[in-house]
Amino acid sequence: QLSCLLKMVTLHGIPKDLDSYPKDLLLFLSPSDYAATGSCSQFFINIGKANVDVLPREAPRRQQLLLEALACLKIPGTQINEENAEILGRLVCDLGGEYIRNSGGSLLKDLSQCGSFLPDQEEAIRDVISSGNTTFGPPAEWSAFTLSELSGLIPVLDHSILQQIPK
Question: Which InterPro entries match (predicted)?
Answer without folding.
Answer: Mesothelin, Stereocilin-rel
